[in-house]
């Protein structure tokens, strides 16, 4: 219910709304100033902005929240319980706002790509990163457009548009990966499985798996599978993660099991290939991280902490 929980897209809209002093809010809602301050301090039900001198200023959204609070109090709900009720409703609102924002950003990305406008695409990338989490930037905005262009039904020009967007995103993701190359408590090597693997998917996966605790060293498509033990011997990672978003080929499980025996670090499998190979690798020394980013990230942390079995 606090402003810290609001979506940045909502905050941007609030900057353009009128703000009201507490005496005016009391007049509009019938709630005296002492009660408004108590709702703020004791229960966190409303969080008005403050002037430099400390005076409270309320937005129209704050006033609407106050009226909702009054409505629940009139129904007999205790004031201490109102916050959780409003928070659930706010989450639904945020979801609708987020869906609207991401649809609009996707349309703007498509238009910039259609014009081959690198400057507009640069600006959009920065805007989206400022408003959304890193996961959402890719899963909700850029990668859906990338996938749609890749799957275009042979429409003239779409191949060039896809290449333009692909090149742009690879450059931006690679730059962010370079900025993140600092010493970490754990370091993993991320490489592609044999077969079709698009570089951007690998780069994005590396960026999203990296964290303050986990550093990621990327091996690009074309990496020879049989040379991975040599690479790991020299890099000495805490784990080797192999990634692919295509179905695992026949005999992959046996090949990976043999490789794991020759590695000096654990071998993990990620992406859609992990989903397809999980049953066949049960009981083997190869751990499957799954295909969804948050799941991969959580399982990787658990495995590095010794809390995830193969």
Q: Can you walk through the features of this model?
A:
With 310 residues, this protein is α/β, with parallel strands linked by helices. It folds into three domains: 75 residues, Orthogonal Bundle (Multidrug-efflux Transporter Regulator, Chain: A, Domain 2), CATH 1.10.1660; 72 residues, Methyltransferase, Methionine Synthase (B12-binding Domains), Chain A, domain 1, CATH 1.10.1240.10; 122 residues, Rossmann fold. 57% of the residues lie in helices and 11% in strands. It is built from 13 helices and eight strands. It is elongated. The two termini are 41 Å apart. The N terminus is likely disordered.
List keywords for this structure.
310 residues; alpha/beta; Multidrug-efflux Transporter Regulator, Chain: A, Domain 2; Methyltransferase, Methionine Synthase (B12-binding Domains), Chain A, domain 1; Rossmann fold; 3 domains; three-stranded antiparallel sheet; 13 helices; elongated; disordered N terminus
